[in-house]
Recover the amino acids of this structure.
C-alpha cells in the first residue's frame, strides 16, 4: 500500500508532464475529425503548456495556505475530469477549453504531489521521484500518444489517463505523514529568491526540445507519411537514451555545470543531425535522437534539482521549474511554428518544379505524360497547404503494361522529391532549435562565471 | 577519477558523439538532400527520353527542345515556364513569341544534330491520318523516297508548319488529343502545300 501510493503519485506527475506533448502525434487525426484548422489544432498543444506554465507558481502560493493533501486530491480530480472531457469534446473549441482546465488541475496536482512524495519518501527520494517522473513523462509523452492514437483513436490518449488519475485521488488523501516543514522560509516574505539562471536555462532548453519532440513527429507523420505507430516507435529512442544518460553521468562524474552544459551541447548536436538527414529513411533519425535523449537526460533533471536544491518553500521553487519548462515550450512553439510553416509554403515551388522536371523527362508516351501532369496538378491544387499525397494521380492513370514499371519508378521518384522538399523545409526550424540549445549552454557558462565572482572571498588591497 | 578527468571526460565523449553523428549524416549526403534543382534552360540538355515513335515522337522532342529554348529567352527554367503555361488562363504575347521562336530554334538544332527524320519516313503516317482520296494516297506512296525527301525537306516543312501554327490554340488544346490534331493538321497540310508550291515555282 505504501509503495502503491508513491507509485500512483509518481505516475500522476509523469502523466501531467507527458500531457505537454502527448497529443503531438494525434494532431493530424484531430485536425481531420474535428474539422479544425492547423492553427486551432496547434492550440491544443499551446493552451495546455501556457496554462500550466502560467498557473504553476500561483498554485504553489496556494499551497502555503492549503493542506497539500487536499490540494493534490482536488488538482488530480480536476485533471482526471478534464481528461474525460477532452475525450468527449465534440468540437476543437471545447477540446481547447478542456485542455485549459486539464492544465489547471495539473498545476495543483504537480505542486501537491511533490509535497506528498516528500512526506512519503523523504526529502531526497521524494524530490528525485518527482523530477524523474517529469523527465520520463516529457520524453515518453509523444510515444504513448502515438501508440494509443494508432491502436485506438486520439480520444484514447485522454481516456487512458482517467483510471490512473482517479486512483491517485484516494492515494493522495491516504497520505497521513506530516509534510516536512519548509522552515522559516515558509513565510513568503522571507522565502528564497528563485534561481533565475537555472530556470532560464531550463526554459531555453525546453524551447529547443520542442523542435525534437514536436517537429520531429510532425515530420515523420505529415512530412514523410509514416503511421503514428511507426513514428511513436521511432521517437521512443529519445526516452530510452534519456534513461541511459544517468548511468553515463554517474560513471564519468562531471561537475553539475559541466553535465548541464554537455546536455545542452548534445541536444544542439542532435538537432543539427536531424536537420541534415541524407534520406527520408527513419534510420537516419536514430542517432540524432539518441543525442537529444542523452542531452535531455543529462540536463533537465539536473537543472530541476539545482533550481530547487535547498530552496524554500520547496513547492514554489518546483513551480518555477514547471513554469520555465512549459513557458519554454510555448516560446519554442511560438518561434518554430512560423519558421517551419513559412518554409513549408516556400517548399511548394521547388517541389512542384522538381515534379514537373521528372514528368517532362519520364520515359512515357506523350499523351500519358499530359494525362499524368493534369492529374498531378489537380492533386497538388486540391491539397494545397499540406504535404500532398500523389498516389491518387497515379491510380487514375491507365498505361500500357510495358510502361507500368516506368510509371512505378516515376511515382517513387516523385515521392522522393516530396520527402526532400519537406525535409529541407524543416531544416531551418531544427537549426533554430539547435541555436536555442546553444543559447541554453551559454547561460550555463554565464551562470558559472556569475557564481564564481559572487562567491569569491572579498579581500582588502594592501598598500 | 581525478578532477581533470571529471571535468573533461564527459565533454570529450559528447563532442566526439556530436561530430561523429553530424559527420556521418553530412558524408552520406545530408547537406544535399533537397529537391532536384531545375537545369539552366540555356544549357544544352541531354537527348530526351521519348518513348513515342514517328510524328508523335518527333513532336515531343520538338516541343521539349522548343520549351527549353523559349524558357532560355524568357530567363526562366523549363519547368517554371511549363507550370506557368499550365496555370495561366491565357499565355502572354511574350510567351507565345518565345515559344514560336523556341520551336524554330529546336528544328534548327535537330537538323544540325542530324536527328530530323527524312519526310519519306513520315509519309505513311501522314497519309493514314489524313482525309485524302485513296487513289491519290496510293500514288504518293508509290513515289520513291528520294523524290519525297527532295520535294519536302523535313526542316523546311516543320518551319513552315510552326509559322502556320496557332500557338495559343495549341496550348489550350493540350489536354484534348482530337482538338490538338485539328489544330496541328491544317498547319502541317498548309506547310506541305506551300512547300510544294514553292518548289514548283522554282522549277518553272
Amino acid at each position: 500500500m505504501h509503495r502503491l501510493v508513491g507509485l500512483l503519485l509518481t505516475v500522476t506527475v509523469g502523466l501531467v508532464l507527458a500531457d505537454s506533448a502527448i497529443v503531438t502525434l494525434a494532431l493530424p487525426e484531430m485536425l481531420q475529425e474535428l474539422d479544425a484548422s492547423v492553427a486551432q489544432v496547434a492550440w491544443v498543444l499551446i493552451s495546455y503548456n501556457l496554462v500550466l506554465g502560467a498557473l504553476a507558481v500561483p498554485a504553489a502560493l496556494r499551497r502555503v495556505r492549503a493542506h497539500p493533501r487536499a490540494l493534490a486530491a482536488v488538482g488530480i480530480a480536476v485533471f482526471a475530469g478534464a481528461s474525460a472531457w477532452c475525450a468527449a469534446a465534440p468540437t476543437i473549441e471545447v477540446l481547447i477549453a478542456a485542455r485549459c482546465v486539464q492544465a489547471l488541475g495539473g498545476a495543483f496536482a504537480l505542486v501537491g504531489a511533490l509535497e506528498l512524495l516528500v512526506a512519503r519518501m523523504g526529502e531526497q527520494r521524494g524530490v528525485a521521484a518527482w523530477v524523474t517522473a517529469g523527465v520520463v513523462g516529457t520524453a515518453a509523452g509523444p510515444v504513448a500518444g502515438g501508440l494509443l492514437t494508432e491502436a485506438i483513436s486520439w480520444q484514447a490518449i485522454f481516456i487512458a489517463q482517467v483510471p490512473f488519475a482517479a486512483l491517485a485521488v484516494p492515494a493522495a488523501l491516504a497520505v497521513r505523514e506530516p509534510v516536512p516543514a519548509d522552515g522559516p522560509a515558509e513565510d513568503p516574505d522571507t522565502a528564497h529568491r528563485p534561481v533565475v539562471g537555472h530556470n532560464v536555462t531550463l526554459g531555453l532548453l525546453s524551447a529547443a526540445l520542442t523542435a525534437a519532440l514536436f517537429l520531429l513527429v510532425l515530420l515523420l507523420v505529415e512530412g514523410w507519411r509514416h503511421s503514428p505507430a511507426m513514428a511513436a516507435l521511432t521517437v521512443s529512442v529519445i526516452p530510452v537514451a534519456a534513461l541511459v544518460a544517468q548511468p553515463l553521468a554517474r560513471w564519468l562524474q562531471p561537475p553539475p555545470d559541466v553535465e548541464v552544459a554537455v546536455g545542452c551541447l548534445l541536444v544542439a548536436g542532435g538537432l543539427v543531425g536531424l536537420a541534415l538527414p541524407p534520406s527520408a529513411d527513419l534510420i537516419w533519425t536514430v542517432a540524432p535522437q539518441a543525442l537529444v535523449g542523452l542531452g535531455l537526460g543529462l540536463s533537465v533533471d539536473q537543472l530541476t534539482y539545482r533550481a530547487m536544491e535547498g530552496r524554500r518553500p520547496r513547492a514554489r521553487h518546483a513551480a518555477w521549474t514547471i513554469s520555465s519548462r512549459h513557458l519554454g515550450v510555448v516560446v519554442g512553439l511560438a518561434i518554430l511554428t512560423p519558421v517551419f510553416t513559412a518554409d513549408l509554403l516556400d517548399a511548394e515551388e521547388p517541389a512542384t518544379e522538381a515534379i514537373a522536371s521528372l514528368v517532362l523527362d519520364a520515359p512515357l508516351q506523350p499523351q500519358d505524360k499530359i494525362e499524368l501532369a493534369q492529374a498531378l496538378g489537380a492533386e497538388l491544387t486540391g491539397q494545397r497547404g499540406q504535404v500532398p499525397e500523389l498516389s491518387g494521380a497515379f491510380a487514375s492513370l491507365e498505361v500500357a503494361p510495358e510502361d507500368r514499371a516506368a510509371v512505378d519508378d516515376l511515382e517513387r521518384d516523385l515521392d522522393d522529391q516530396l520527402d526532400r522538399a519537406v525535409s529541407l523545409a524543416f531544416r531551418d526550424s531544427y537549426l533554430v532549435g539547435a541555436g536555442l540549445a546553444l543559447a541554453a549552454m551559454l547561460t550555463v557558462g554565464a551562470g558559472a562565471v556569475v557564481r564564481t565572482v559572487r562567491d569569491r572571498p572579498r579581500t582588502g588591497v594592501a598598500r | 577519477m581525478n578532477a581533470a578527468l571529471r571535468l573533461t571526460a564527459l565533454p570529450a565523449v559528447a563532442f566526439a558523439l556530436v561530430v561523429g553523428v553530424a559527420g556521418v549524416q553530412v558524408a552520406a549526403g545530408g547537406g544535399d538532400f533537397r529537391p532536384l534543382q531545375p537545369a539552366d534552360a540555356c544549357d544544352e540538355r541531354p537527348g530526351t527520353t521519348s518513348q513515342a515513335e514517328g510524328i508523335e515522337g518527333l513532336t515531343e522532342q520538338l516541343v521539349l527542345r522548343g520549351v527549353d529554348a523559349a524558357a532560355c529567352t524568357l530567363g526562366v527554367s523549363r519547368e517554371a515556364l511549363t507550370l506557368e503555361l499550365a496555370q495561366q488562363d491565357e499565355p502572354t504575347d511574350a510567351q507565345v513569341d518565345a515559344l514560336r521562336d523556341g520551336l524554330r530554334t529546336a528544328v534548327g538544332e535537330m537538323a544540325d544534330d542530324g536527328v530530323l527524320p527524312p519526310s519519306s519516313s513520315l509519309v505513311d503516317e501522314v497519309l493514314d491520318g489524313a482525309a485524302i482520296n485513296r487513289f491519290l494516297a496510293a500514288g504518293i506512296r508509290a513515289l520513291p523516297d528520294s523524290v519525297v525527301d527532295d520535294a519536302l525537306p523535313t526542316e523546311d516543312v516543320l518551319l513552315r508548319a510552326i509559322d502556320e501554327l496557332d500557338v495559343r490554340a495549341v496550348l489550350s488544346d493540350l489536354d484534348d488529343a482530337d482538338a490538338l490534331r485539328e489544330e496541328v493538321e491544317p498547319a502541317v497540310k498548309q506547310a506541305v502545300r506551300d512547300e510544294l508550291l514553292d518548289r514548283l515555282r522554282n522549277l518553272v
